[in-house]
Amino acid sequence: MPEKVEATNAEISGGQATSRRKFMGYIGLAGAGAALVACSPQNPPVVELTPAQQAAKQDLEILNYALVLEYLEAEFYNLFAVGGKYAANLKLDDVKKYAAEIAGHENSHVKVLTDTIVSLKGTPATKPTFDFSPLIGSKPINDELFLALAATFEPIGVRAYLGQVARLTNPALIAAAGAIHAVEADHVSAVQELRVKLGFNKQPNRQTDIAPQSVAKPTSLVAGDFDADYSPTPTAFWKALTMDQVLAIVKPVIK
Ligand SMILES: [Fe+2]
Ligand SMILES: [Fe+2]
């Protein structure tokens, strides 16, 4: 790991960082602009990015943000796919098939984002340690729980990409983000179709543009307030989530 990133992590682990800064340690301080923000206090540099450097830095921050979210999705599905810790907890063939297929997609998303960041001379974010137990609680780990969690994570991914597309400056990256965003939306519908088919979805006709947030608490960022029951074709226009909103949602599962 480059010295500049180690310095940043040491600073973050010093306890003075806010949650946002800790998260930004994963997503924001690796890449084109990092050298310019990591010089020693004894020798303060003149920090002035050109507009092109600033644009490149912003793109890398967004790519690393997406990478962390894809790490999360990939780890979740890998836990339930063949060879995963919870693979034996899935009993239904359709569900096992979805776990394997979507795990493959998420692992591909991790790879393409990592490769893209490297190709742009950035440093891919380190994979965080995830712990999904705050979402699982005392619930039995089974097909129904797996699909409910998938129906929670997937629209967050859709809305997270939506929140960043207009902030990307490189047209090629906008196209790539759009391509992944579309697949996340496919995941939303596929998972929800299966939940309907299996009788797990109590509101299969509910239209919503803020899933997994609920009607009762539409602005809550707490998983306990979310509602995974919505239509497999949930909306005409999704509402975006900002980085801060997504951070607040995923923070409980990042150790
Ligand atoms: Fe993904
Ligand atoms: Fe996904």
If you had to describe this structure to a student in words, what would you say it looks like?
The chain has nine helices and no strands. By secondary structure, the protein is mostly helical. It has a single domain (51-253), classed as Ferritin, core subunit, four-helix bundle (Ferritin). The protein is globular, with a radius of gyration of 19 Å. Bound molecules: fe (ii) ion (2 copies).
Order of helices and strands: HHHHHHHHH
How many domains, as an integer?
1
Low-confidence sequence ranges: 1-18, 28-39
Report the radius of gyration as a whole number of Å. Answer: 19 Å
Q: Please identify which CATH superfamily we are dealing with.
A: Ferritin, core subunit, four-helix bundle
Contiguous helical run count:
9
Fraction of residues in helix: 55-70%
Number of strands: 0
Which outline best applies? globular
Summing up helix and strand content along with how strands pair, one would put the structural category as: mainly alpha
- The CATH architecture category equals Up-down Bundle
Strand content: under 5%
CATH topology term = Ferritin
Average pLDDT: 87
For the sheet with most strands, the description reads: none
**CATH C-level class:** Mainly Alpha
Distance between the termini: 20 Å
The distinct ligands, each listed once, are: fe (ii) ion
